[in-house]
Amino acid sequence: MRVIIAGAGSVGRSIARELIGHDHQVTLIDKNPAAMKVSSVSAAEWLLGDACEIASFATAHPEESDVVVAATGDDKVNLVVSLLAKTEFGVPRVVARVNNPKNEWMFDEAWGVDVLVSTPRIMTALVEEAVSIGDLVRIFTFHQSGASMYEITLAPGATVVGQRVADIAWPAGSVLAAIIRGDEPIPPSPDDTLEAGDELLIIATSADENDLSALQQLLGDEPTTT
Fold first, then answer.
1. pLDDT tier at 207 (50, 70, 90 boundaries)?
2. Would you call 175 helix, strand, or coil by DSSP?
């Protein structure tokens, strides 16, 4: 796979190293000469240029790439790069970094974005996931479909503890994708029985508050009666 990364800062270089480690061909492009730290990712192709300018971006041959990643620290730049990649060069897949969560609403198909990655939101979700038991936590959203992945760790008082997966009345639009028990991921089968402490990964196609409330009620602690 051929990938172009616009933005050769620490984020862009880290992505490049990971992709190269998986045997992908990577080009890094940045307009800042100080960002040209070629020795840090020597296996990548490096280009000094402004990806927001068509002529400069064209030198990276985005029309031949499979993916363009807009990874700069400026949301405006990332939007422009995404739009150029999709509309001017027909790149099949465009991934854009969102630095300010307030700007997420702009990162959509109208700007050429196929997948948005909001680092602050992901970090928040991971913090919540690490400390929350019995609470439904959104991990991320699949931008094209609008579906989201949620995580919940089952508390001992959850009503589904001890039940078979097949016997649980899952809300419409919700699918149990995986059970993580200890350090072992388990592909759920109808006969699997849920246990306290299980970490469930769920794909939900609806963002409707009533549907999410039903999912939380199903998987959360059993209500206390007084």
1. low
2. strand
